[in-house]
Amino acid sequence: MFFEEQMNKNSQGVKVMLQPHYEELVPLMSKANGSFHLKMWDAKTGDVLVEWEKPNVLTLDSGIIAARLFKNSQDPTVGANNGITMLAIGTGATGNILNPDAPDERQRSLNTELFRKAFASSQFRTAAGVAVAYPTNIVDFTTTYGEAEAVGPLNEMALIHPADPANPIPAIYSGVNYDASFDTTNYDLMANYLTFGVITKPSTAILSITWRLTF
Predict the structure, then answer these.
(1) Are strands 33-42 and 205-214 parallel, antiparallel or unpaired?
(2) Threshold 0.90, pTM exceeds
């Protein structure tokens, strides 16, 4: 697996001591780290167009998701799903097109969302990167965008628990105006936010993203 070489140094990056109170949980969750692998290839020839890995930081709202799940394993819920279920990708990262502003843990939605899609798979893994059928502290979330999906100049993405229907938290409560007391019950909750140098996905390419979280 592509992550095997990274495990020893990354496995220490997202160890979280979970506490029962939101006020204690948020600072701990905000220090957690994840990593992801992005690969885009030509749908006809199979030629790899882009491939790289990057680390990222969980957002403050990941603490809200965790606190809700600890209180009730079925909350937050959309239909039969709970927890993080989708990857959203967008075109709105601020700053230089090739070197955008660093992601902010206070971010609560994409700046310009282009497309969101449910995970194609989620997989527990051991510290050695081996896929297992039982729960561990490491989980991979994989999403694949087909030829007609997420076409455009991409430079931001996030793992989210979506509202039904989709309902991003207003920007007034995000960033420097982050308000942890805002009632998020009927809004999307974003667990991670990442910015990156623009990648233009053509309608002839397939894009696969695997996001790894280690707790």
Answers:
(1) antiparallel
(2) no
For the stretch 177-194, pLDDT in tens is 999 889 999 999 999 999
Identify the domain containing residue 100 by its residue range.
Answer: 4-214
Q: Over the stretch 54-74, which tens digit does the pLDDT of each residue have?
A: 888 789 999 899 888 888 888
Outline where the chain has alpha helix (H). 7-10, 22-30, 61-71
Judged by DSSP in three states, 75 sits in coil
How many C-beta atoms surround the C-beta of residue 135 within 10 A?
Answer: 8
| 2-31 pLDDT, tens digit each | 444 443 444 333 333 333 344 444 444 444
- Rg of the chain taking only CA atoms, in angstroms: 17
Three-state DSSP string of 147-191: CCCCCEEEEEEEEEECCCCCCCCCHHHCHHHCCCCCCCCCCCEEC
For helices 61-71 and 22-30, give the axis angle rounded to 10 degrees.
Answer: 130
Counting the structural domains of the chain, the total is: 1
d(CA 139, CA 215): 9
* Helix, strand, coil percent values for the chain (each to nearest 5): 15, 40, 45
Dihedral sign for Cα 187, 191, 195, 201, please. negative
